[in-house]
């Protein structure tokens, strides 16, 4: 196999295996992982050497000697209902004692808050006291609910903790340092300089990631309680709060962080105060990260960042990210969405670390790592066909993976296909539709390919019905943009956009919440659709209870949702339209995931394409010269991908474009690269598939592909 574009996790003792995989997988780089090291023989193999480094947990002895510089977090205790006999709150009762300890080094009456959650009022500091983990309410209303919001030291770095739990590590707990403090900043830079001097063989320093982990709070049993992949809780400290006040002219309180127990989840519209907090940290973190990257470059090495752990403040789609000066970003790719999330980052190079990790939760006696990998690779490959990353690799322990010969063969095929994409595409763009598709939500660009993510690639009951649309889009022939309501307010709608998609539950940031009460937003979109634009809503699109209705753009979507306030108003009985461009390829019932109920026809001219229990699941409508489509939910599947593709082309009034490089069989997709004169037919199933490919010049090609096969061909054949 051609050597290149493959980073292998190595470990001492696996030298012969690595030499074998250099030939079989075309490995050109080797990296260490948490808990492994590279022997001198591996370092001398002539491969690029990646070395993993997490600066904030590198020097545990210094961290133990300077406990005041440990990272901190705001936590909210479990709510307590006060009775005549119950007036005390054990603030750590619901948290993992190995992860946190309350910070009593500060003036707790200044930095902590007790809140009456029945009234929302802050309890005066004179009305409560604290001792040995217990807050006693000196004055409290009977049968009101109370919580304590308190600062806590993080006494176990979350990634180290995860590895202990998952991989049965026994080394001492690692303490995370807070580089907001100048003494910690200076020490970390010294640690980095010494480390670089001691690693002359290292070509590429892979920061994991930089300084502050995403929000990861464990419960008292050591299980995940709260996960926010986009959180900024770990950036907090008394110093940071003081500096924030100096910079912005007002002071944040505990409530700004615990946020009624929601901890500023990205699923809700952020407050202006929280957006200021993000901005404040992004500027500082990007600036300090740049110092680290500059030092790496001074030593003649490249600096890359792992996109996944300590990336608060270094968000790849944030406005300060480019200032860091990184050479590349590597991220874990568990599906097409996360693959595109990595591939679309505006940086010199990108690398995907494919799942599964070589960890004992998958690679155990009787395990099926090939079965784990196959559906992941099919999704990732779809995305790579549209926008490929520069390199591929894996993480974990090679000694585990090599015990599964069928998996080694399987990765050989993956590496062949991955390198084949680069060889045939030659860095050019694939064929795509003549218009862009925009995803509209509160966050916009900063959450590109990140909507409805709870944690990396993990299934979630409330989210799969929406993230399926992104998974479908990851491999479809469209330019995708992520836009915010502020973008529309400030700049209008870019003329290159042909279709806007709004998807999410009511009140969430993904649907938009109170942004839909803004006359400028709704009138701008109405005008744009009226002049020929296409609008697709999934779930609770444009949803905000305002002026007597929930769906604010029901006039475009053609349907409305009954919330109970107008239950006495008769709703029209509908008979589904049996034939429509959008539903032409359907072979089975449509899967709407969690779906919706009480969706009814609101516009006389709307056509309802599917009904269940008198609720409209799929509907289309014309609005002026434009079109609207409503879908009750869209989990990822091959059929739903074809459904969404047809809906987009129909909404854009560009139905004929669907048939360029079109596979009649939805199980097969076709990706064309006009500049290289090559195209690829890809079987997205594990079964043999037959199909007909319709090309741009009306030529037809009959094909049969084996399970998971991809076949490259010349356009002029």
TrEMBL record:
Signal peptide boundaries: none
A Pfam family assignment: Lact_bio_phlase
Ranges where the Lacto-N-biose phosphorylase C-terminal domain occurs: 661-713
This protein's UniProt keywords: Glycosyltransferase, Transferase
UniProt enzyme class: transferase
Domain Lacto-N-biose phosphorylase central as annotated: residue spans: 436-656
Entry EC no(s): 2.4.1.211
Alphabetical list of InterPro entries matching this protein: Class_I_gatase-like, Glyco_hydro_b, Ig-like_fold, Lact_bio_phlase-like_N, Lacto-N-biose_phosphorylase, LBP_C, LBP_M
Alphabetized GO MF terms: 1,3-beta-galactosyl-N-acetylhexosamine phosphorylase activity
Sequence ranges assigned to domain Lacto-N-biose phosphorylase-like N-terminal TIM barrel in this UniProt record: 4-432
Protein name: 1,3-beta-galactosyl-N-acetylhexosamine phosphorylase
Organism from which the protein derives: Paenibacillus pseudetheri
Source species taxonomy: Bacteria, Bacillati, Bacillota, Bacilli, Bacillales
């Amino acid at each position: 196999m051609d050597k290149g574009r493959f980073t292998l996790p190595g470990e001492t003792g696996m030298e012969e295996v690595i030499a074998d995989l250099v030939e079989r997988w075309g490995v050109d780089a080797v990296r260490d992982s948490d808990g492994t090291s590279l022997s001198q023989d591996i370092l001398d193999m002539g491969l690029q050497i990646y070395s993993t480094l997490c600066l904030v947990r590198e020097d545990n002895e210094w961290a133990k000697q300077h406990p005041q510089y440990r990272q901190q977090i705001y936590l909210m205790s479990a709510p307590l209902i006060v009775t005549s006999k119950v007036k005390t709150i054990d603030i750590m009762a619901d948290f993992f004692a190995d992860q946190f300890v309350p910070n009593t080094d500060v003036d707790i009456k200044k930095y902590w808050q007790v809140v009456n959650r029945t009234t929302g009022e802050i309890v005066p500091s004179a009305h409560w006291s604290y001792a040995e983990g217990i807050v006693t309410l000196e004055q409290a209303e009977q049968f009101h609910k109370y919580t304590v919001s308190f600062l806590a030291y993080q006494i176990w770095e979350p990634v180290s903790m995860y590895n202990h739990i998952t991989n049965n590590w026994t080394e001492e707990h690692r303490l995370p340092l807070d580089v907001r403090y100048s003494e910690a900043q200076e020490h970390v830079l010294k640690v980095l300089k010494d480390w670089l001097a001691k690693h002359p063989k290292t070509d590429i320093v892979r920061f994991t990631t930089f300084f502050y982990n995403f929000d990861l709070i464990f419960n008292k049993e050591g299980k995940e309680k709260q996960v926010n992949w986009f959180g900024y809780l770990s950036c907090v400290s008394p110093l940071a709060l003081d500096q924030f006040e100096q910079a912005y002219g007002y002071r944040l309180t505990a409530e700004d962080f615990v946020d009624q127990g929601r901890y500023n989840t990205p699923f809700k519209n952020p407050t202006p105060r929280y957006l200021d907090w993000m901005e404040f940290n992004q500027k500082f973190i990007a600036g300090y990260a740049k110092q680290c990257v500059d030092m790496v470059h001074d030593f003649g090495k490249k600096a890359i960042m792992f996109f996944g752990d300590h990336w608060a403040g270094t968000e790849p789609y944030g406005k300060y990210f480019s200032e860091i000066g990184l050479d590349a970003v590597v991220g874990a790719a568990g599906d097409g969405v996360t693959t595109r999330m990595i591939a679309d980052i505006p940086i010199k190079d990108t690398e995907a670390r494919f799942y599964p990790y070589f960890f004992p939760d998958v690679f155990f006696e009787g395990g099926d790592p090939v079965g784990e990998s196959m559906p992941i690779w099919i999704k990732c490959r779809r995305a790579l066909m549209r926008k490929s990353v520069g390199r591929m690799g894996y993480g974990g322990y090679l000694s585990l993976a090599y015990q599964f010969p069928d998996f080694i063969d399987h990765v050989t095929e993956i590496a062949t296909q991955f390198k084949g994409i680069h060889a045939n595409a030659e860095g050019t763009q694939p064929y795509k539709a003549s218009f862009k598709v925009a995803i509209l939500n509160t966050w916009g660009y900063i959450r590109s390919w990140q909507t409805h993510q709870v944690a990396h690639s993990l299934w979630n009951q409330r989210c799969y019905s929406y993230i399926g649309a992104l998974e479908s889009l990851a491999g479809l022939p469209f330019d995708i943009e992520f836009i915010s309501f502020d973008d529309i307010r400030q700049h209008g709608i870019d003329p290159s956009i042909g279709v806007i998609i709004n998807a999410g539950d009511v009140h969430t940031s993904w649907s938009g919440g109170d942004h839909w009460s803004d006359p400028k937003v709704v009138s701008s979109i109405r005008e744009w659709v009226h002049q020929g634009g296409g609008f697709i809503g999934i779930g609770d699109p444009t949803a905000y209870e305002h002026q007597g209705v929930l769906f604010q753009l029901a006039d475009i979507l053609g349907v409305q949702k009954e919330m109970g306030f107008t239950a006495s108003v008769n709703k029209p009985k509908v008979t589904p339209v049996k034939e429509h461009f959008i539903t032409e390829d359907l072979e089975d019932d449509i899967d709407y995931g969690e779906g919706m109920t009480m969706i009814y026809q609101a516009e006389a001219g709307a056509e309802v394409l599917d009904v269940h229990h008198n609720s409209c699941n799929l509907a289309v409508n014309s609005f002026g010269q434009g079109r609207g489509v409503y879908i009750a939910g869209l989990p990822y599947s091959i059929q739903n991908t074809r459904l969404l593709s047809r809906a987009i082309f129909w909404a854009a009034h560009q139905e004929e474009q669907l048939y360029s490089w079109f596979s009649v069989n939805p199980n097969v997709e076709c990706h064309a690269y006009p500049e290289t004169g090559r195209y690829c037919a890809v079987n997205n199933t594990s079964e043999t598939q037959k199909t007909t490919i319709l090309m741009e010049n009306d030529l037809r090609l009959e094909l049969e592909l084996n399970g998971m096969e991809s076949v490259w061909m010349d356009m002029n054949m």
